[in-house]
Amino acid sequence: MKKKVQDFDIDAETSIAELVSEMHDSGGFVAKNVGLAVEILEDMFSDEYLNFLSFPACIVSTGTRGLLKEAIKRELFDVVITTCGTLDHDLARTWEDYYHGTFTADDSELHRKEIQRLGNIFIPNSSYGEVLEKNMQPILEEIAEEKDKAMSTREIIWEFGKRIDDEASILYWAAENEIPIYVPGITDGAFGSQLWMYWQNDKDFSIDMMRDQQELADVVFPAEKSGALVIGGGISKHHTIWWNQFRGGLDKAVYITTAVEYDGSLSGARAREAVSWGKINEEADYCTLKGDATLLLPLVLGYFY
């Protein structure tokens, strides 16, 4: 009992960085972990770490996309691992708009009106599958004519990023800054379906998943230190911690999740569980932030902007 709990002292002039520092000193539950998360990330960003960013697609349908884009634009992370839907939403929002909705909408009525609901985001069919098919097929034809027809997910994502003129796009900045994005579940979404549709007429075209694995091996094995910001769960989370076990586990890790751990799910597993698998190092600095990423990321990443 050496550090006293301090009361918040904020006003209209308080910056995000100052607010987060106040959270660290308040000693209050999740707020304290926000401060701890920023402290861990600050170490990752200021030293020679191989830094991973892992996140699910759903938050890319929201304004949180802007925070992720900015992290890649600022080159805070060296490797991004995500799901197919990230490509879907990032490209779709480059070409069309998504809209505010409500969790309590009549979903049958939305279906009749050709509107898809993602939480409280409304996505017209015309802003998703239709616009992706319309724009992706010509781009795939162009890529196939110019490049090797067997590409890793990282390569084809960069090729799309080079061909869209939208500085609000995650893919744009990944290609611009040559930050690899890997999607281990590339067929699980509209982007993957468009790849399959293109393949119907060009059987020489393929995605070489083993090339992805080799590229990850080439950066993970020699890394002296590695860290990760892991948002949500699923395949993107697991791929991140799975690969880091091969070098003795992550040395720094921040998890953000709303999932519970008592059902044994990976999404709900706290950072401490990964220590037992060797996916996070026994001596690592880590914390788990429990809460919605759309609320916590503006604080955690906003501190560095």
Task: Note down, in words, how this protein is organized.
This protein is α/β, with parallel strands linked by helices and 305 residues long. It contains 13 helices and eleven strands. The strands form three sheets. Strands 7-2-1-9-10-11 form a six-stranded parallel sheet, sandwiched between helices. Helix 7 (153-162) packs across helix 8 (170-176). The longest helix is centred in the first third of the chain and has 18 residues, at 29-46. The protein starts with 15 loop residues before the first helix and ends in a 5-residue tail after the last helix. The model has no long low-confidence stretch (mean pLDDT 96).
Distance between the termini: 33 Å
Largest sheet: 6 strands, parallel
Radius of gyration: 20 Å
User: What percent of residues are in strands?
Assistant: 15-25%
- Coarse structural class: alpha/beta
Order of H and E elements: HHEHEHEHEEHEHHEHEHEHEHEH
What global shape is seen?
Answer: globular
Helix content: 40-55%
Oligomer: single chain
Unreliable parts:
none
Mean pLDDT: 96
Count the DSSP helices.
13
Strand order of the largest sheet: 7-2-1-9-10-11
Strand element count? 11
List keywords for this structure.
globular, 305 residues, 6-stranded parallel sheet
How is this fold's topology laid out?
Elements: H1 16-26, H2 29-46, E1 50-55, H3 65-73, E2 79-82, H4 84-95, E3 99-100, H5 107-112, E4 115-118, E5 121-124, H6 129-146, E6 150-151, H7 153-162, H8 170-176, E7 181-182, H9 190-199, E8 206-207, H10 209-220, E9 226-231, H11 234-244, E10 250-257, H12 271-277, E11 280-290, H13 293-300
Parallel strand pairs: 1-2, 1-9, 2-7, 6-8, 9-10, 10-11
Antiparallel strand pairs: 3-5, 4-5
